[in-house]
Amino acid sequence: MLKPSLVTAAVLHGLAVLGAGYVRSARAATLTVDSPTDDSSGCTLREAVISANENDAEGNGCASGDPGVDTIVFDATLSNEIITLGGNAISVTEDVIIEGGAAPGLAISGGGGRIVFQGTSASLTLRDLTIRDGYTDLADGAVTVNGGSLHVERVAFLDNASYSGAAITILGATSASIVNSTIANNTAAQLPGAVYVANATVSIINSTFTGNAVQYGGPTDLFANPGNASATIENSVLTGTCLGAITSSSSYFQDSSCGMPTGDPMLDSTLRTMGSPTPFFGLQVGSPLRDSGNQTICDGLATDQRGAPRSRDGDGMGGAVCDIGAIEVGDENAVPVELERFRVD
Questions:
Q1: Burial label, 102 (beta-carbon count in 10 A; 0-12, 13-18, 19+)
Q2: What number of CA atoms fall less than 13 Å from residue 132's CA on the CB side?
Q3: pLDDT of 203 higher than 50
Q4: Which run of H or E residues covers position 219?
């Protein structure tokens, strides 16, 4: 098994390559979603994924996909909109990148009646999005993959519900990562409340898990099937419970099932947005997460979940050391909290 540091290096290298101009077929397409609904004129998210899957646009309002790794983006007019799905989950069968950065505040909702994305033998990358209100009484998450790979970066998973693994369910993947993301307030009937992993290894880096719940017993935050799966947690905070084949370093837990318990992380009690593309939990003044991360891991991350730069002096003691979790803060003793989003020094 690869050491956690090597796994982290591989994951962050992959994310850097994707962010810096992923080397892919010259025939890859960029598809722009301009409709806030699931069934209207224009290019809807569902139609854009169909175009990417089929490398065609016949019968829908989007451009044609191409055989390469297509990228789906969103028109700026969709900022702060909620795209609520009205049919089944959106099926992903070809490699695709879905990025919400051009439409800050955009959320994709299952409407309390369905999961959001279902990937089959494809590479699915999600960035700068909120995935919320997915629902199923089956063992699926708001995002479910079986085969291929899943990479999640700067994404908030909120208020999803299912039988198990309400936020993310990985039934099999060649690679999987959750980076700079918030997984919060997701509920399952039984293990786990938030993230289920089988037949895969998942790397969780600089992410925040909090407020997740399970109704009838089992871990709230993470289950990695010890028979065929594993999880590596680095520079992350989990306030709930875990079960399975899990290794951790430079992280903060409230329960020994995830790793060495270290106490109250002093997260804010409510979600903030404050100009961020996705909701997040801030850090209270005096939080032990400030300036406590492994800087080597953070050196592979240009920003936090909000797009604010890593690393910064978060405890007022001098020196820029990265924080644990999805958010990087400055010295709020010097800067009012309401201005924290805009501080860059």
A1: middle
A2: 18
A3: yes
A4: none
CA dist 81 and 77 (Å) reads 8
Residue 180, φ and ψ in degrees, nearest 5: 50, 45
DSSP conformation class of 297: H
Q: For residue range 247-278, list pLDDT tens digits in order.
A: 999 999 999 999 988 889 999 999 998 879 99
Q: What is the pLDDT of residues 105-162, one digit of tens each?
A: 999 999 999 999 999 999 999 999 999 999 999 999 999 999 999 999 999 999 999 9
Secondary element (H or E) of residue 286: none
Q: Look at residue 339 and give its three-state secondary structure.
A: helix
**Backbone angle region of 235, left / alpha / beta, with phi > 0 → left and psi within -120 to 50 → alpha:** left
Question: Of all residues in the chain, what percent carry a pLDDT higher than 90?
Answer: 78
pTM above the 0.85 mark?
yes
Domain count, the chain: 1
46 near 87, Cβ under 8 Å? yes
Please give the Cα distance from 241 to 305 (Å, whole number). 23
**Is residue 274 domain-resident?**
no
Residue 322 in domain: no
Q: What pLDDT, on a 0 to 100 scale, did the predictor assign at position 210? A: 98
Binned at pLDDT 50, 70 and 90, residue 23 comes out as very low
| Cα angle for residues 311, 315, 321 (degrees, 5° grid) | 25
Examine residue 43 and state whether it is found in any structural domain, yes or no: yes
For residue 60, is it within any domain? yes
Which range of residues forms the domain containing residue 40? 4-253
Q: Helix and strand tally (H, E) in the chain?
A: 3, 23
Query: Partners of 73 in the beta sheet?
Result: 32
Cis peptide bond prior to 181, omega within 30° of 0: no
Which of 212-221, 289-298, 306-315 bottoms out in mean pLDDT, i.e. has the lowest? 306-315
Please give the structure tokens belonging to residue 115: 């999961």
